[in-house]
Amino acid sequence: MTQKRKDVLVVGFALFAMFFGAGNLIFPPALGQGAGVQLVPAVLGFLLTGVGLPLLGIIAVSKSGGGLESLASKTNKKFGKFLTCAAILTLGPLVAIPRTSATTYEMAIVPFFPNFNPILFSAIYFIIVLVFVLRPSSLIDNIGKVLTPILLLTMITIITKGVFQPQGMLTTTGINSPFSNGFSEGYQTMDAMVATILGGIILGAIRAKGYTKTKEISEITVQAGLIAAVGLTIIYGGLAYLGATAGDLPMDISRSALIIQITNNLLGTLGQGLLGVAVGIACLTTAIGITATAGEFFSKSSSGKLSYKAAAITTALVSMGISNLGVDRIISLAEPILLILYPIIIVLVALTFLDKYVKSAAVYKSAVYCTLGISVLDVIGSFIIPIPIITPIIQGLPLTTQGLGWILPAILTGMTFYARDQYINHTRKKVEYIPN
């Protein structure tokens, strides 16, 4: 095997570990259980946003040479900072970090210590997080390197047994829009934001291996991304199948309880215990990494007025408070936020691939702001209060039932401004070449 292929494998596994968060395990089984016989379209929708979009995000970052702020700054620098701040808040204290604590409590503590106080647990959890965040150590990284393979091996074992010895048959659940449900559920992995915010770390690792040419870096990134995508597809698809064949488990069971019960049915108490320990440590390493990232970001954004230590402690305290809402409640609160942020990220990633042809900031602004406006109005009408006249129009847009109501207006507005710019440039050239 050549050195380049080895490097591709190493980066591919690193990407897989970046996306394969323990918290993501709870989504595919619940999706599969709700989809039943309509498993395939539900999984396809989930894979588009849970795997395909992060892959495109990593490639877009390699093309632009920067992260989300760099992508969004093509619209407006202040908007780039605002969007990055919103994404960091979502990845940090508002959703992702609290979810790691809540997931650990529900999957690693409750099954064995059902009466353990959740507030006390969250306090202990975030004290441990801060110990590592404020006093960096390689210990937790080494633990993560050991536990991620254990988690992956556990998942493969569960999936393999569940495929060859299914607990039940695919049933009709009456779900109306399996594809759009899967598409929206894929947002909850938040891996597209992870890709655009932390993608720079991957690019730095590739450059550190001696690759300097942009084309070569992009080639390695694409190949590594495909390796990660294949791995995620197998794991997510397998877990969704386990959920769809979960037998007589109640439909209203929580996401965490569902994967715990499936594991217990297939591997018994030992498998459940192994899963709990692996998930707990994996969540802890994720929380430490994101808390440190959030601390650095907010300290840098304030030009040092807010110290790294103060930012990290504040992030941990806010996360601790939200974590006690429970996994399902955190997920439901995250949904409207992600329904606003994800469409914008999708548009920015798409425009990055068209950057060769799109030279005007007006195209970026029109497409992004149009997407933002429609997404905000849709969320207000769906989650807060319907707006007379406007909400029916928004909900009547093509592809709205698939969660893509914003896509046609974004394309049309972008194309309109692109045509305008082409016309202006053509007119200017004609004027410049008029003979005296």
UniProtKB/TrEMBL annotation:
Q: Which GO terms describe its biological process?
A: isoleucine transport; L-leucine transport
Q: Which InterPro entries match?
A: Brnchd-chn_aa_trnsp_Livcs
What topology in the membrane does the UniProt record assign? Answer: Multi-pass membrane protein
Q: What is the primary gene name for this protein?
A: brnQ
Q: Which family does it belong to?
A: Belongs to the branched chain amino acid transporter family.
Q: Per the UniProt entry, what species is this protein from, by scientific name? A: Alkalicella caledoniensis
Q: Does the keyword Transferase apply?
A: no
Task performed by this protein: Component of the transport system for branched-chain amino acids.
Specify the protein name.
Branched-chain amino acid transport system carrier protein
Transmembrane feature ranges: 7-27, 39-61, 82-100, 112-134, 146-164, 187-208, 220-242, 274-294, 306-327, 333-354, 366-391, 403-420
GO CC field: plasma membrane
Q: Does the keyword Transport apply?
A: yes
List the GO molecular function terms: L-isoleucine transmembrane transporter activity; L-leucine transmembrane transporter activity; L-valine transmembrane transporter activity
List where in the cell it is found.
Answer: Cell membrane
Keyword annotations for this protein, in alphabetical order, are: Amino-acid transport, Cell membrane, Membrane, Transmembrane, Transmembrane helix, Transport
Which NCBIfam families does this UniProt record tie to the protein?
livcs
Main subcellular localization, coarse class? membrane
